[in-house]
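Quick log. Single chain, no ligands specified.
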Amino acid sequence: MFGLGWMEVGALIVIALLVFGPDKLPQAASQAGKTLRNLRRMANNARDDLRSGLGPEFSNFDPADLNPRNFVRKHLLDDLEDDWNDNGKPRELESATTAPYQPEPVDELGFGEIPPYDSEAT
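-> predicted structure:
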């Protein structure tokens, strides 16, 4: 629960009892719950208004994608994860017009030969 252990949760309950007292604690918890529901409702309404204002072109827009971490994960790393998690499944065949890259053969220098020098390249 939010990265808290049982000791931290127990300490928060004790502090809440000391601050609010046993009589006011249920009212404070109820008020906090209502506030949280209202905030979620306002956030959902704002997101829906933004989507409707942007039009049908952005119907799959998610404001969480504006976070750089989510953007990178969604648009760059998903393809890599799909490749890594392939588990040996056969991939679709490439089109017949696409040939694999083959580098041009390079003449190797013999023993004692001096490599060519281009004076205009420097």
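The helical segments are 6-54, 68-84.
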